[in-house]
Specification:
The chain is mostly helical and 105 residues long. Helix content is 77%, strand content 4%. The chain has 3 helices and 2 strands. It has one domain. The chain is rod-shaped, with a radius of gyration of 22 Å. Strands 1-2 form a two-stranded parallel sheet.
């Protein structure tokens, strides 16, 4: 928690860090649909093979790998979202830190 005025440099560094997090979150959201569709396609193939009695270990491994990538992406998104929330300092008391008056105007 910052106690005292936020210098121009510190304010700009904080804004830049938050902007980088937002860009990373947007990139992750662009990639996520492709991972989800890949996982769904492999799951459909896996289920068809299971019904036909032809479960192949390789297909199961590919499905598990795709599922792992989706779960890793979701975990990374949640981690980045939490980092953004903490960086915004929304829950900090208002009197804990303040911006130098020249930045506020």
């Amino acid at each position: 928690m910052t106690t005292g005025p936020l210098s121009h440099r510190a304010a700009l560094a904080l804004i830049e860090k938050l902007y980088d997090i937002v860009l990373d979150l947007e990139q992750l959201r662009r990639v996520q649909p492709a991972l989800l569709s890949s996982q769904q396609a492999l799951q459909d193939q896996f289920e068809q093979m299971t019904v036909a009695g032809e479960v192949r270990e390789q297909m199961k491994e590919r499905y598990e790998m795709a599922k792992g990538k989706v779960e890793a992406g979701e975990a990374k998104y949640e981690e980045m979202r939490e980092s953004l929330w903490q960086g915004l300092k929304v829950m900090d008391p208002l009197d804990a830190w303040y911006v130098v008056s020249s930045l506020a105007s």
